[in-house]
User: Fold this.
Amino acid sequence: MKSIMDKNLTKDELIELAAKHVCPGRVETFKQLGTVPVMARREGNYFWDMDGSKLFDVHINGGTFNLGHRNPELIATLKEALDHYDMGNHHFVSSARTHLAKELVNSVPGDMKYCVFTTSGSEAVEVTLRTARKATGRRRIVSFKGSYHGHGGLSLMAGDADQAAYFLSEQPQDEFTQVPFDDPGAMEEILKADDTAAVLCEMIPATIGFPMPSPGFYPQLKKLCEKYGALFIADEVQTGLGRTGKMWACETFGIEPDMLISGKGLTGGIYPIGAAVISEKTAGWLSEDGWGYSSTAGGSELGCVVALKVLEIINRPGILENVREMSAFLAEGLEGIKDRHPFLVEIRQKGLVHGLRFDNPYGGALVTACGFESGLWAFPAGFDRSVLQFKPNLLVNREDCSEALQLLEKAISLCEERFKV
Ligand SMILES: Cc1ncc(COP(=O)(O)O)c(C=O)c1O
Assistant:
């Protein structure tokens, strides 16, 4: 793409230009971490930094690259779609949107009926929150402390209070409430006021390092929602699309949500799209008001075609089995690393979601920095830097997993040597 954007800048020049026009704070933070990654070539498990380093990607942007970077089938699908479609007219009925909605609705457990398409996960979160308020006539939204649901209006307020307050967007306490993850008692204290529209659940909260719910937590929470008339919304932007070994984490945890949110992986890493899957009982507004929600680019037909291919690939025989097999393989390998390196103190795992906690408040961030030098791209949890997020794509085989484990161990060893941790 030299023709439109490459003015033969060196990596350092590009970073300075980005600091000047795009993201000064971000550039500074990466500099403090010791490296400012700039993605150049990308393919399968890997991307290459502009400085030439080859990196095995186990951050994969929270699941965006669930099927690897530039998956050839997805690229071919988008290229073919470009021969026939454009974004489409969002006011009209569309073949691509209708087929994708049918596939998504049929994939989610419960009495799902409709799908509203957006350009991002945050917007899909907002669709579900508005739907919940409209359906229940209540305003309060309860979510988990430390969960992340995006940087839109309502989605930001449903997340970390400090992040919302930073933009003077805090909400009155009687509209957004957060309770600790995995604490049904604290949840019931709020729900029993009978004024909660929805409990918005980031099924395995990424930003606090993938703590796992206790067995039975979600079924208990669903019962509480039913008892107190609150709707259960599963935010599956990160946990969905096969990541936990089933299509959706709500299946893994044995519950039927009232609404479900997808994003990231649904894009195939190549065309933005988000989706809110909505149950029949909550979706009254869709019949009442055909324009109750509207988004010009939401559900672009190009994105729908890519997303249909994403679902087709994940539904192929062997893909979810592979997730479960690789999960078991990685569990064994990670335990071995933990035995050899006391710096790694805890492994949290469900399917191909791993939170690796280190014996240092910044342990995850230190391994990120050393990983970059060792050939591994992994990222710490935003609100708990002791934890490293470790999420390979869904198509990895044993050889790939062995390579990722070796690179991780190399990064940990480098960390121990350099920082004496
Ligand atoms: C669980 C969860 N929900 C919602 C979002 C927001 O998605 P987007 O960045 O596409 O707006 C994210 C993004 O990281 C997320 O991880």
